Amino acid sequence: MKHGKNYRASLGKYDAAKKYDVAEACQLVKDLHYVKFDETVELSVSLRLGKNQTMRDTLVFPHQFSGEKRVLVFCKDERVKEALDAGAAFAGSTEYIDKVKGGWTDFDVAVATPDMMKDVGRLGMVLGRKGLMPNPKTGTVTNDIAKAVGELKKGRTEFRADKGGVVHIAVGKVSMDVKDTAENVNAFLGELNRKKPSDAKAGFVRSVSLCSTMGPGVWIDYKEEA
Questions:
Q1: pLDDT tens digit string along 85-96?
Q2: N or C: the chain end with fewer CB closer than 10 Å?
Q3: Sequence-distant (≥ 6) Cβ neighbours of residue 117 within 8 angstroms
């Protein structure tokens, strides 16, 4: 991939082969920023996952950096008011299932009560492709609508490993205070360590890197917890 002169100039400002501690890496990503818009800061973590191991969960970052999420709740009509009172942007059953079947996805995250999943599960071609399918592993299939909607609006974020065992997750914006970005990075790495499979072997985390949307990557010196 051919990069522009600004990108190449950024590469010349630091040692791209060196591993930095989290705070240094966050500062470097901020310093290497060269575009005019407020870039997202993304963390990439390569995991050593076994054949039947996966990594998928959620967390709430200590420092928020994205706009309020529009939550759709699939629920029976008698629970619509409860969902809307909790802060959902949309709530309902048949009418929203039909809208999504037609391709409507004007929301950021979907929650479903268990009794709706038989119908919601048929929306896989639309919701699955966009990563919006409710899932009990991420707390988005639940009878506790108020708790789920409240946490999502506070910024609860889903993360998952891709087929190559790499988790990509946004952890901040370039405009944020470096201390806040670093705390978000450490919060995620701590959560990853807590949620690793019980039979994970040493070296579960292969590598950790940080970059902005358009900027070069910075390696992080990650020491795996026992």
A1: 999 999 999 999
A2: N
A3: 134, 141
Tokens 């939550």 correspond to 71
Higher pLDDT, residue 188 or 199: 188
Q: Can you read off the two tokens belonging to residue 187?
A: 């919060």
pLDDT, position 2: 58
Instruction: List the beta strands (DSSP E) in the chain.
Output: 19-20, 40-47, 56-60, 71-74, 90-92, 109-112, 156-160, 166-173, 205-212, 218-220
Query: What count of other Cβ atoms lies within 10 Å of the Cβ of residue 7?
Result: 16
Q: How far is CA 35 from CA 38, 166, 175, in A?
A: 8, 26, 12
* Cβ partners under 8 Å of residue 131, min gap 6: 158
pLDDT of residue 88: 95
Query: Distance (Å, rounded) from C-alpha 51 to C-alpha 11?
Result: 36
